[in-house]
Amino acid sequence: MLFSIALLTLATFYSNAQTIQMLQSGSNISIRGLSVVDNKTVWVSGSEGSVGRSADGGNTWKWIKVKGFEKTDFRDIEAFSNKTAIIMGIEAPANILRTTDGGENWITVYKNDTKGMFLDAMEFWNEESGIVIGDPVNNKFFITRTFDGGKTWQDIPAQNYPIADSGEACFASSGTNIRQLNKQEAVFITGGFKSRLFIRNKKIELPLLQGKQTTGANSIGVKNATTMIIVGGNFLTKDSATKNCAITTDGGTTFSIPATPPHGYRSCVEYIKKKRWVTCGLNGTDISNDEGNTWQWIGKESFNVCRKAKRGKAIFFAGGGGRIGKLVY
What we know:
By secondary structure, the protein is mainly β.
């Protein structure tokens, strides 16, 4: 009994020791793109053609309206330095832009005006090799690739596009429904009427809420080739914890459900270190210190996305109303 009480006290200490410091809020911008280069360099992107950049760990920000794209929703961003970044506009038409001068000027490096085109997320293995996934067109998920740091993009052959089921799509909620699995491969997850994990040539049905346009997997976090956590739910029922998280430790062969799940719909999940993970959504943020088996609610501010620094320990959050936060731990 004393041992159990000690464990509970320790878990409470860790959850209470982790808080979110609010850095920005109060605008009309909905932010879903977030890229943390290091502990100092942070980029965000979102609605109304907006891009934000901080060079001092989020203390001050420079905000940019990308000329000619003032109505574009940039749902994802990938940054490589304080100067170089890539942003992804989702539709009508779908555009990818690149800057090498801190956002002062942007070059359109990809444009696709195919009817029904809707880009969901972007992932890079390194500073040269990247991938973008889009919703199904003619029942096939769209994929384009770059091998030169986003300067040029090549659509993969249409016959190689993954086939979607009826009513299956991806959610452009946080830019994290596609992730690198290892140095060569990526995995992605889907939602809607069917929610699945696509890994190599496998399509694995997920034990998450599904069956409606608003349900399913929103984000996948990858620790290594075997350990992954997937979150989602129904974004119309933000407080529901029903079938909102699944864990695999064998590369997707089997899944487990948390003993204590995140406390509502979650749009993003990120691996931190050791057995520690973080996930966020419309009704707050949860931390897990035991590989996702139990989650502690550490804040109730709404965030769409959370990302850890590529080179460093900093963890940032971003969401609607121009909210940007930082994990203090």
